[in-house]
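Human: If only I could read backbone structure tokens as easily as an amino acid sequence. Underneath my words sits a plain record pairing an amino acid chain with its backbone structure tokens. Take your time, and here it is.
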Amino acid sequence: MRVIICGAGRVGVGIARRLARENNDVTVIDQSKELIRSVAERLDVRGVVGNGAYPETLEEAGAREADMIIAVTYSDEVNMVACQIAHSLFNVPTKIARIRAQNYLDPRYSDLFSRNNLPIDVVISPEREVSEAIMQRMSTPGAFEIKSFVDGRVWAVGVKLGENCPIVNTPLRQVAELFPDLKITITAIRRNAKMWRAHADDQLEGGDEVYFVSDRQDVTRALEIMGEAARQARRVIIIGGGNIGLYVAQGLEKLGSMKIRLIERNRKRAEFIAEALERTIVLQGDGLDRAILREAGAAEAETVVAVTDNDQVNVLASVVAKREGARRSMALINDPDYGAVSEAVGVDRFVDPRATTVSTILQHIRRGRIKGVYSISDGAAELVDAVALETSPLVNKPLRDAELPEGVMIGAVYRKGEVLMPSGDTVIAPDDRIVLLSMRENVKDVEQMFRVSIEYF
């Protein structure tokens, strides 16, 4: 596949790295010579220096032969114009744009990005994506990673096992025997920076990061068994009143039973947010100021969420809030190097907006009847939600005879309103929704399993 990526920032480079690993023909455009030189040296991609909204630049990048353009520069307008020109002059089939400004995303103007106006096939709003990820993690605080599939019926959950976890030193096949009514499948294990697809003979150890796929109804019980059950917060402090902070507060208000405090440093922004929210108390001040945190009720807060545009502030504010008495903390971390630092200093959870945006883009890059994709462990594996077609090699045979690749594990099957946990005897039927884990090297195999072949028509 020939792909043009406009923008060599964190998201652009993350997508370029993933696609180059899979032997796609990737060209990256950016106005910075330094960024293009760095990308071309580190990755197996071609670099073009220029403005992605200029026809000449797109032509130099190979737009006439491109299958897709992904516009993720820092300018919404450049992203939109790049997609328009890619469509009008070069007839690029698939166009993806990152749009940050909420005025463009107002539901009143929902037809703005239609084929007859601005022909963008997929619009990505990082702030909304990240806000949803934060909300989902807050709903299940015992997990460090959560992604829902199949309209929320199936969840993929990441949890870190404590030394006293009751299933430590137990082979996975025995876990299934001990809890036969529990609808979960442990799909992957990460230990000492190494990740692999789970096997029946694997024994879990304290400190392991475990990923499991589950019926939504069984997630809480699964976390209790793994020793990581935690009640959803009732008192929340949000530090940072940007779009993400505002969206999180609005989402929490809809739950109806929380006491929410939001701290914003800029007075005008704080006044704007106070008018936009109904039940949230907005405090104007510095989230690093202990007096402000005390006024916000940090001593009684169950969760503090730091979502300013500064990673260092988010980490420090989380630490200070916990010292003031907050039970749990979550920080927005843009620089992946800060992830390990945040955990070392006591931040309970962190959210990487780059990883969230990359996963959303991958969902539209993957070939076949794939409904959802979530990248985990910096691209070491992907969780995939796909539809089984009649022509799929998985269909109409027991899974034990399906010859799945070594790095692929089916976590759940959704059929006619019911979530099924797979076994060797499970027979996949046409139109089943399959939620599976694929290690990075087997992604192409998964695409092939769910590809529409000519016999389908």
Remarks:
- The chain has three domains: 2-124, 235-355, 356-456.
